Amino acid sequence: MSGGKTGDDDESGTVPGMSKDTQLTIDNLAAALSRHHPALLPSGASGRAGVAAILHEAPSGARTGAGLLRLLFIERATREGDPWSGHIAFPGGMMERGDAGIRATAVRETLEEVGLDLAAVEPLGRLDDLRGRPLPIIVSALVFRVSGETAFARGPEVKEAFWMDVEELYEPARRTSIVRRRDGVERTLPAIRMTGGIPPRENRPPLWGLTYQLVANLVTIAGRPL
Questions:
Q1: Cross-strand pairs, 47
Q2: All domains of the chain, ordered by start, with CATH?
Q3: Tell me: the pLDDT tens digits for 155-206?
Q4: 3-class DSSP state of 60
Q5: From its phi and psi, is residue 34 left (phi > 0), alpha (psi between -120 and 50) or beta?
Q6: How far apart are CA 171 and CA 24, in angstroms?
Q7: Please, are residues 74 and 86 in contact by the beta-carbon 8 Å criterion?
Q8: Taking all residues of the chain, what is their mean pLDDT, rounded to a whole number?
């Protein structure tokens, strides 16, 4: 699922005084999320979706160096009738009747879409809820940390699962925009080029919309806005 209100003081969980040159780590992100009070929204007319923002530290000897923070993204498969078809997203999907809550939704969908089992993983925190378009759903995101080697088993709704170093998202050369028309009005939206990554690929769609907003919320909470 692709494309929030963000805090601007200590009560929001934002890390005060973090330099733009300070590398984000699991520890400072976890500390900021523990203080963050997410803005929650009631479910929309079409329900609620739960997604997982999954963090991982690069293992020793990785090409980008040990300790660098990575974020898991998927490219959704192209499917007729899917408003998020082909988008860059976090693993996730719609809450189902049998789900005990938003965590259960995020855990179930992550297992179905990429084969990662988060059932025993305690979330680091929750991001601000977002209101989806064009469907009137509410998107809720939980932040998880995984460690060790990871392997993906992609479900039919996913074309690719890949890691992106968080620091790469700040590179000026990646900044771009897309133009979308809704209700006869054109809007220019911020986006990030997603070339490279792990495994590397040069022709991925850009990150924009709901997932862009969730990423922006996450790094703003940590004190380093995009």
A1: 44
A2: 10-221 (3.90.79.10)
A3: 999 999 999 999 999 999 999 999 988 888 999 999 999 999 999 999 999 9
A4: coil
A5: alpha
A6: 14
A7: no
A8: 87
